[in-house]
Amino acid sequence: MADEFDKFQGTDDYIVSSDLKDIVNVAIALQRPLLVRGEPGTGKTLLAHSIAKGLNKRLIVWNIKSTTKAKDGLYVYDTVQRLYDSRFGDKDVSNIKNYIHFGKLGEAFTSEDQVVLLIDEIDKADLEFPNDLLNELDDMSFYIYETGETIKALQRPIVIITSNNEKELPDAFLRRCIFHYIEFPDPQLMERIIYVHHPNVRKELVWQCLEKFYKLRKIEYLRKKPSTSELIDWIGVLMKAGITESELTTAFPFLGTLIKKEQDYDMLMKEKSVIGDRNAKSFSNERHFF
Amino acid sequence: MVFTDFFYNLKKRNVPVTLTEWLVFINALQRNLMDCNSQKFYFVARALLVKKESYFDNFDEAFLETFRGVEIPLDLKDTLEEWLQNPFALLQMLTPEERLLLLQNPIFEQFRKNLLEVLQNFQMPIEPSEALKSWLQDPYELRRMLSTAEIAALERLMLEELRQLFEQRMREQKERHDGGDHWIGTGGTSPFGEGGRHPTGIGLGAQSRTHSAIQVAMKREFRNYRSDMTLDIRQIQMALKKVRNLKRTGLEEELDLEETIDKTCKNAGELEIVMVPPRKNKAKVLLLMDAGGSMDPYYIMVNRIFSAAHQLKTFKDFKYLYFHNCIYDQLYKNMAFRESIATNELLHTYEKDYKLIIVGDASMAHSELFSAGGSIDYYNYNPTPGIIWLKRLKYHFEKSVWINPVIPNYWYANSTIDYISKIFPMFHLSLDGLDAAVRKLL
Predict the structure, then answer these.
(1) Span A18-182 CATH architecture
(2) Residue B27 is nearest to which of A30, A83, A186, comparing CB atoms?
(3) Which of A73, A289, B107, B353 is the most buried (most CB within 10 A)?
């Protein structure tokens, strides 16, 4: 094992803070999974894509659903298929191996080159799910009961795990990971992110948009706060519609791009200070957002 | 070089770090993966040792405690300038509990005297404003503005440097604010830009990374993420998630064996598998809230949390009622204490599988709890003492909890809180407390 470790420096299409870069490199060097938590829309999934691209490695994505079981990630023994095939007699059912399909983790282990494995939104699954993966993540191997084979990772994959703040993860699992919490980007970082996606946007428009965006995020009553991707979409829409920043000071066009919940939208439309219309009904005295 | 002090400080601050993580940390140090005395050290240490963001603030405390004396605070001027630009940001960084603690610190008195001396001997180009004078006269103002770490750091700063700094700051203020003599900036600075210098808002120039690890830790950015302090309005979202755990999980389809066999037989032996979605068992919640004066900030919040959870269809049924200080023979449907329902009726209407959650400070005169007629409501003489009613409730409902906004440190023995906690399992109204309470109810 070489002492020198792969240096991840970020990629052109993904702005990453220097602390996160350091942590990624440490995770790779220590060969431990990296657990990334944060609000939705902070770029957790994109981080894994960026790492794979930056290190020139294949990316395997395992999207976790609420019904996912740990075993599914290793392998699946398709008994039902085998039963159906035996019924109709035209396939060779004697060899179990034909019915063992590798899950994403199995795929990562059996790959000849080192891959980046992204386990996305691990907190969607059952509470016990991360614990079920513990041994396999530690040893980097698993045992197939039906064939008696032990699959060991040829090259230890770089494991990135993302989690929204939905559920708590079990302690035993957390202990094995390196943890980073991605905070919502501050205005400076957000500005850089916007320029990556919209290189030709005018500075003044960006500043106006950022100001309105962060004020919206401060509103406690919103069911769903607007996130990074929504801001980027909004700016794209404004650019296409040719809206200028001076128009933005008095109105709030295309609010629906930012606010996705109907109740939030209705409430905001009533607020005089949001849409800047003097004729709008004023909701109540205590709620002065701007 | 082994940072054992650091390890013990972390444990002292309740960061759940074990030997496993510590060894990884040491390993990383040995392999030179983090430079000491820089921001990298702080972030990598945090990534290796702390696995939940709710402990980030505790980590900051331990980090400051261990490494505070280590670095030379040459960068302190930046912090001080930042502070002078916007002392209100610092105000927000302190919790009420911390402000209380700071008042007892004798260092403040000394600092205040030093500062006054310096400023008296020093020829100011302009007359210090009333704001500045009152700021200096009123030690409480000053105390509120600084954290313990900053006070300690300031002590080390030479008074001369301090004087020069003030001089420079004064001049700069005069230039920028065009003769205004307001020393301390007003509350509403723009959220970005460097300390509000840029009027329309966005920061200029590249991000400067000259801040040291200590400064990062001093910022205490993650204070709001802590889960062990009394619930605050900002934490409602998180609290909501805890409460929603009352909905049981595990919703995958199950093999319906009976139906499968049945269908397969009907199919002349052709295999036919039948899956069935599971039965959902949602909880029914009865929430009783203390709506007497001291509970005002809390019951609105608690009601909001549970109502929101109810809207999200967490509960099969959700009802709430109010009482004042203690539960007697009536419970009220609204805060004005007009419409009421007899507690006996409640016991007959709500089945025992309702989960009973009582939110209150459990603080009252002993007579209110133990005596007939103890109710503070003059017009509602209660023949049965409050404690009997509490016991009746407890024995009727299979699962019940009492949630108390008062900090557990103040649950003194032989107080009414103590007696009530012996009847109902009592939890603190914090994120951790809510978590534990919900687990008790499941």
Answers:
(1) 3-Layer(aba) Sandwich (3.40)
(2) A30
(3) A73
